[in-house]
Amino acid sequence: MLKELPQGEGLMGKGVDTIVEAVLGGVTVGMNPSDCPVRDVLDHIGGKWSSLILLNLKARPHRFGELKRAIPDISQRMLTQTLRDQQRDGLISRHVFPTNPPSVEYRLTDLGDSLIVTLSPLMAWAVDNHSHILKARAVFDDHG
Amino acid sequence: MLKELPQGEGLMGKGVDTIVEAVLGGVTVGMNPSDCPVRDVLDHIGGKWSSLILLNLKARPHRFGELKRAIPDISQRMLTQTLRDQQRDGLISRHVFPTNPPSVEYRLTDLGDSLIVTLSPLMAWAVDNHSHILKARAVFDDHG
DNA sequence: CGGGATCCTTTCTGATACTG
DNA sequence: CAGTATCAGAAAGGATCCCG
Fold first, then answer.
1. Hey, are the CB atoms on B132 and A111 less than 8 Å from each other?
2. Cβ pair B82, B27 in contact under 8 A
3. Would you say the C-beta of B102 is within 7 Å of strand C?
4. Does the CB of A117 have a partner CB in chain B at under 8 Å?
5. Where does the signal peptide begin and end (chains A, B) (predicted)?
């Protein structure tokens, strides 16, 4: 829930940390550009493929090729790269089975699972409100 | 809340729409790349500045210069552009006062407000779990 | 004050070819 | 099968100058 914000001089001129702190409620957040947790997370899930991969892994563990088939329009390069990033962030884990040919399975970690649980209301909002957005765009584009 | 997903053949080879439908619960979602509501929204809030602007406007209406000062490291160009995009999407409204010099005020619309309310749990998650992510990265970068 | 227009650099993404 | 390496185009972002 959002917290009541101070009025009057308010947040003006105090930098972003004050705002986030005010909105999130007293949490101290280092706001040195690269330290901002909000942007750090949003930049990742905002990527073109991250959420789609997490959704697939939420369903069940997947092998590399399975993911590739489940998300037909992803390139091999981006799949590899996104998986690496998510593994690096501790959102997914990678398990190699030394069979022949090799087999690699990806699965959601607890951290990744908690992220997608938190993310799902936002996805629901997107579905629910997409028509509003499209309509607003049409109006804006038509006359201004 | 997330829905139980079918096992067995599951989602493999059925395309992304099936997954989103399964996870979000029976909503029919056209998944032609540009039609996906989830990606459409995520691409926007994932931008470098969108969430920060929305947070500021959540606190109270802001004038252009106020926003610029509140977010010191944004360039004038990106501020203008992001505001236009959000206005186009119906998330914020723009009010011009024909004073001299001119004054323009931006404020959150109801739609924008509902978005940031939905978004705030995710921001809280980011704050709460950022240390986990940083730690995972350190481990990953150290050895693999 | 609130931008628009332009140029330039960085980052992202896709296509293609090759490998253990 | 599950990647790596390389290249090229597209897009995002920043710096600067200009205007009513």
1. yes
2. no
3. yes
4. yes
5. none
Contact A42 B15 (CB under 8 A): no
How far apart are the C-alpha atoms of A23 and B57, rounded to whole Å?
A: 11
* Residue in chain B lying closest to A124 (CA): B24
**A88 contacts chain B (CB < 8 A):** yes
Determine the residue of chain B that is closest to A121 in CA distance.
Answer: B118
Alpha carbon distance A73, A70 (integer Å): 9
Is B45 an interface residue toward A (CB < 8 Å)? Answer: yes
Kindly write down the DSSP assignment for every residue of A67-89, as one continuous string. Answer: HHHHSTTS-HHHHHHHHHHHHHT
**Helix/strand/coil (H/E/C) assignment for every residue in A118-138:** HHHHHHHHHHHHHHHHHHHHH
- What is the reported pTM? 0.83
| Residue where the block lists tokens 């998650």 | B125
Chain-chain contact of A59 with B90 (C-beta, under 8 angstroms): no
Binning pLDDT at 50, 70 and 90, where does residue B60 land? Answer: very high
Whether B92 shows a pLDDT value over 70: the answer reads yes
Report helix angle B110-142 to A110-142, nearest 10: 140
Dihedral class, residue B25 (left if φ above 0, else alpha if ψ from -120 to 50, else beta):
left
Q: Which of residues 50-79 of B touch strand C (CB under 7 A)?
A: 63-66, 76-77
CB-based contacts of B91, cutoff 8 Å, min separation 6: B54, B108, B109, B111, B112, B115
Query: What confidence tens digit (pLDDT) does each residue in A4-41 have?
Result: 333 333 333 334 444 455 555 444 334 554 578 888 89
- What letter represents residue B124's amino acid? A
Contact B42, A51 (CB under 8 A): yes
